[in-house]
Amino acid sequence: MTSTEQAQKSGAGTAHPDHLGHVIFIAAAAAMGGFLFGYDSSVINGAVEAIRDRYDVGSAALAQVIAIALIGCAVGAATAGRIADRIGRIRVMQIAAVLFTVSAVGSALPFALWDFAAWRVVGGFAIGMASVIGPAYIAEVAPPAYRGRLGSFQQAAIVIGIAISQLVNWGLLNAAGGDQRGKLMGLEAWQVMLGVMVVPAVLYGLLSFAIPESPRFLISVGKHDRARDILEEVEGKKIDLDARVAEIEHGMKSEHKSTFKDLLGGSFFFKPIVWVGIGLSVFQQFVGINVAFYYSSTLWQSVGVDPTDSFFYSFTTSIINIIGTVIAMIFVDRVGRKPLALIGSVGMVIGLGLEAWAFSFDLVDGKLPATQGWIALIAAHVFVLFFALSWGVVVWVFLGEMFPNRIRAAALGVAASAQWIANWAITASFPSLADWNLSATYVIYTLFAALSIPFVLKYVKETKGKALEEMG
Question: Are residues 73 and 132 in the same domain?
């Protein structure tokens, strides 16, 4: 009997209507980690130019300060799973909430550039932890029939967090008279922008006390009675609780703990399927998507856009990001992962290519010519839309489905690490590349978007409608 059949037999496939609202609250509370992931990742966009001015640093040094958080992200993501297996999922959320709070306060009140960078690393560690623990917890608590929809809360929370951070930045900049270093609440405006994150961070911590521990973790540490109570709480009284506990226990015992050694093989160190996962992760970042979220205000100001307007455009880009993500969530199971990825790649090539063309024109009185300026702005939104409706969501779906069971966990870890490293490479290089030649920088991103098309066509297999056990 398959696990699906067992779930249906035990009644686990459905949740009683009375319990569904509670389960949605639990998933939403856990997804606050995703909100903070998005918020903390992109809030720095509002402070880049102010940090450059206050500490009088060049583009290369500035880039390292912005990108250094990604080192913390990689460490946090790599360690969160093991910590959660030892002390529980809720405790990891609470640790992440504390780190988000400490990072927000430290980043808002730095003594010098070096300690600002250190607080960025602390925030990165929290982002990494949140990126792992949120989806894992929701998958373990959600009733099977609703797992996909509830699991999408994490991605939705991330893009909402990005948008809210840009809206808050724009509002604070207006309150400070359009000056990122203008006085606001006794601090400079950029400091307030970074400090505001204390509010959602504290809320995340408080919500973590209002949701139950994962039944899977409780069973792993022998707390079967508490696990039964929580299963009844989230799935209703109609299920056979003993059968569900036995099913979870059997599944955990039969799991193969994949290791790095399991990934080795083939002609080029890793198994071919692992390289495909790494390729998806790298292409997702090398199209330059995080330039749009970390540096968009700086980008628009560099071509003559007023600072207040540049912050507003960062916000509108974030709204487009939300719209694209919703489109992907609607169509990923209908159209399929591979067609959506190809559609996105074509759209990104068009958007990035137009940006590269627009930025190739000389500035007139410190601004792009009007036509090129509008084309650059529209093209930037087109790029973000096509990324969000495809690669932003599809890559994570692919990585969760494409690997054989025996190597899934380890392969996903390697692919995710590749993604953080690629993210760091793009984030750390953009300011210097933009100083060198902004148009050529976007030509590079366009080339990677174009190369992603033959990569998907040749190496990526469709996973829509296939059971995880079919991946070989």
Answer: yes
- Shared-domain flag, residues 314 and 213: no
- Render pLDDT for 316-344 as a digit per residue (tens, 0 to 9): 999 999 999 999 888 888 888 899 999 99
54 and 189 part of one domain:
yes
**Is it the case that residue 30 has pLDDT exceeding 80?**
yes
Task: Calculate the average pLDDT of the chain.
Answer: 85
Q: What are phi and psi of 421, to 5 degrees?
A: -65, -45
Please give the full DSSP string across 64-126, using - where no structure is assigned.
Answer: HHHHTHHHHHHHHHHHHHHHHHHH-HHHHHHHHHHHHHHHHHHHHS-SSHHHHHHHHHHHHHH
| 402, 45 Cβ separation under 8 angstroms | no
Domains identified in the chain, total number = 2
User: What are the tokens at 291?
Assistant: 């330039």
Distance CA 222, CA 351 (A): 54
pTM of the model: 0.81
CATH number for the domain including 129? 1.20.1250.20
Q: Which residues of 316-346 are buried (b: 16+ CB within 10 A; e: fewer)?
A: bbbbbbbbbbbbbbebbeeebbbbbbbbbbe
Contact call for residues 421 and 73 (beta carbons, < 8 A): no
Residues 92 and 106 occupy one common structural domain: yes
Do 147 and 235 fall into the same domain? Answer: yes
**Mean pLDDT lowest among 135-149, 332-346, 434-448:** 135-149
Do 19 and 233 meet the contact criterion of CB atoms below 8 Å apart?
Answer: yes
